[in-house]
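hey m, so remember when u said the C-alpha cells were messed up on ur end? i reran from scratch. heres the input so u can diff it against urs
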Amino acid sequence: MPFTDLRQFLAVLEERGDLVRIREEVDPKFEIAAYIRKTSDAGGPAILFERVRGSTIPVVGGIFAHRRRAVLALDATPEVAVDRFNSAIASLLPTRRVSSGTCQEVVHRGQEADLTRLPIPTYSAKDCNPYITAGMVVSQDPETGSKNASIYRLEMKDGRRLGILCSAGHHLAMQFARAEARGKPLEVAIVLGPSPATLMATQWEAPYGVDELALAGALHGQPVEVVKCQTVDLEVPASAEIVIEGRILPAVREMEGPFGEYTGYYTDTSPKPVIEVTAITHRRDAIFQALLTGVPTTENHVIKMVPLEASYYSMLKARFPGVRAVHFPGPGGVGLMAVVSMRQTIKYEARSVIMAVLSATRNKLVVVVDDDIDPYNLEQVMWAVCTRAQPDQDMTVVPRLAGGYLDPSSRERDANCCLGIDATRPFGQPFAEVATVPGLDRVPDPSLWGRDSK
C-alpha cells in the first residue's frame, strides 16, 4: 500500500539513504533551488532543509527529482508503475470525511493568515517573486459541485494574496469562468505536503468533473480521509502538512510572472487572476514542500511522467491493441514529446496512433517505434528514427493544433505546429535484420569484472 502521508514516505527514504538532512541555515531565495537542481542533475537524494532563513518551518525538496522515488511513492516497481496507476483509474474510491485532521492543529484566520511566515522559495534568477510550486489546488464547480485537484503555480504577491496561472482549458479555469460569470469568487484550498501518491494523482488527465482525490484513494487502497476547511466550503486531506484557504476574486487581474517554467525558459508577464487568502492551517511541526521546475529533467517533469503515461497508454491500448508502452521523456518537458512503442497489426497503423496522440494532448512531437525499441531509452529511439524513417515518407507535419502557451518557439499563442514520426519498420515488407552478439547472457555485469569468482 502506498504511503498514507508525507512523513511516512520521508522516513522510508531516510532509512534507504535516499534523503539527506541539511542542518546549516539555507536561504529560501535561490539556495534551496540550487540544492534541488544539483540533486536532480546527479540522480541524488531528496533533501530536508532543517533551518530556513526567515521561517521556523523546515522545507523538503527533491522528492520527485528522480523517477525511482515516484515509483516508490506508488509502492511499485518500474515495470508495473504504469499498470498500478491504470488499475487505480479503473477503481476510484471517493473520499471519506472525518471530524478532525492534523492539517488543522494550528489555525490562522484573517490578518493572522500571513503567507510571509511560510518558507516559500524563489527558484530561478528572474522569477518575479517567491512561488508555491507544489500546491495542490482543491476546488469545485459552482454549478454542479464536481471537484477538482491539480497543481498550479502560485506567486506570493504579499502576505494575503497569490497570483495564479490556470490556463484556458484547465479544469480550474473552467470552474473560475463559471463563478466569475455570476460575479462571484471561486473558493480554493491549496494543500501542501499531502502523501506523494496524492500529489501524483493530481497529474492524471481526468475527465472534467471526476475528483482526482478519488484516484488518490484507489492508489492508497483506501479512501483519502478529508476534513472540512475553516473558511471555505471545501474538503482537504486530513493528514496534509499545510493548507492555504482562499478565494479567486472575480474581475480582478494583476501582472504575474516571469517564472522559470517546465520548458526551461521564463514565461512573460501578463495579467492573471488573484487569490485572496482567508486562512492558513497546518500541523504543529509542519513541513513545507518545495518542487523545482525549470530546465528538464527535474521534479516538475518526473511527477507527471507516470500519470501521463498511464493516461495515454490506457487511451491508446483501447483503440490499438498492439501498443506496448507510452513514455513522456524529460527533455520534452513531459508535455511536448511522446514516444509510443507498438507492434503494428495493419499498414500505417502507427500513423493513426500519431494522430490519436496529437488530437488528445498538447504534445508537439510524437514518435512511434517498434516494440523491440525501449521507449524509455532515447538513444534507442533516435536510432530507430535515423534508421527506420525517411523524412519525405514517414514524417507528418500538422500545423496549428491547440497548445503552445508555454512553448517559447510557438509563433502563435495557444497554438503549435506538430510533428509525427513513424519510426517503425514498413508493415509487411522486408527490412534489414538487426545485428546481434551471441552469448551476452553468459557475460557477467561489468561491475563484477576483475573480481575473483567461484
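this time it looks ok to me. The mean pLDDT is 94. if urs says something different then somethings off w ur setup not the seq
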